[in-house]
Design goal:
Rossmann fold; two-stranded parallel ribbon; 5 strands; DNA polymerase, domain 1; 10 helices; mainly alpha; 2 domains
Length: 205
């Protein structure tokens, strides 16, 4: 979702920096780079330390995500990756699923605020599987729920961990270069969903 459906990473960066500052933690670029594609429990333990209890990890994650939603709410529709709504509309006859490491509250927020929920037959978040990306669990669960063979799935990803997860699941990968300019290991790289290469590539699969 983040970086593929909505270009939310600039707001996540701002939210983490502001939230961490409340606890005397200055957030550098290396920390922000490490967060991409990760589940919140991994990010919180990275930023605050592995000694935290599960309850403390959850509390930090929930508070930061509340701050993120407050920041991005006025700009949700403007932050959608260009062409994504039209792309989903053109392919709504196909089994489309959303598989994301994002918190469920953020998933519901984006799908409802941007009115995208009808396009997705299944929604799987990172807490519904034993292991988050870069493990393949989340993509395997989505494919299972869609009733689609792994070899017939195309994953859209913006993060290195997501690409690793999709490859481990035996799926084709389209890289969306909203987060990183270079995405090794993808079958096709696009800047956004207006790319003329995308529909041609999909038609020839």
């Amino acid at each position: 979702m983040d970086g593929v459906i909505i270009n939310s990473n600039p707001w996540h960066r701002k939210a983490w920096a502001e939230y961490n500052r409340r606890f005397g933690i200055e957030t550098d670029e290396a920390m922000l780079q490490r967060m991409y594609g990760k589940r919140n429990d991994d990010i919180v333990r990275d930023f605050f330390g592995a000694h935290l209890t599960d309850e403390e990890v959850h509390a930090h994650g929930a508070a930061k995500e509340q701050l993120y939603r407050e920041m991005i709410r006025p700009a949700v529709n403007e932050a959608l990756v260009p062409g994504v709504r039209e792309f989903l509309g053109r392919h709504r006859h196909l089994p489309i699923g959303l598989a994301t490491n994002a918190e469920r509250a953020n998933v519901d927020f984006v799908l409802d605020e941007a009115h995208l929920r009808p396009y997705f037959r299944v929604v799987v978040d990172g807490h519904q599987v034993p292991n988050p990306k870069p493990h393949p669990d989340i993509y395997l669960r989505a494919a299972e729920q869609l009733g689609t063979a792994q070899r017939d799935c195309v994953v859209f990803e913006d993060s290195f961990t997501g690409i690793e997860a999709a490859r481990a699941a035996g799926m084709a990968v389209v890289g969306v270069t909203t987060t990183h300019d270079n995405l090794p290991g993808v079958d096709l790289a696009i800047r956004d969903f207006h790319s003329p290469k995308l529909e041609l590539w999909l038609a020839n699969r």
